[in-house]
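note to self: dont lose this again. the chain is below, predicted strucutre after it. 133 aa total, dont forget to put it in the shared folder this time
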Amino acid sequence: MKRKRYTQEFKDQVIKESLEVGNANIVARKHDLSANMVSRWVREHKNQNKLASGFPYSNGHNQSAKALESENEKLKKLLGEKDLEIAILKDLVKKTNPQLKIIEIASKWIAKGYCATWYYDWSDLAGQHTITG
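---
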């Protein structure tokens, strides 16, 4: 009996369906194929993607993962800059006015128009904290 050859487009369609459904047997029956062959196609597809990009997902997921990693790196850098800025400002406040309490400093900045955050409940902290370094 002569072997049947399948086009790459057909294989990609079957692989996509199998990944969506999560069961190669169902997809194989639908297309009148061997379940072992469909499983092999899916396994080879996953291995190929792992080698190519380090992620065992399809190309659409790789692009979104790369975009998320890029955004994550930018946010980490921004967070590091803000942490450094906060440390510098705390040191400056400590040197210029060591007797000021956090609540007093925060109240001055809020009065200037800066937004208070949820991090502190100012009424509960009144008089409890001072700047320490």
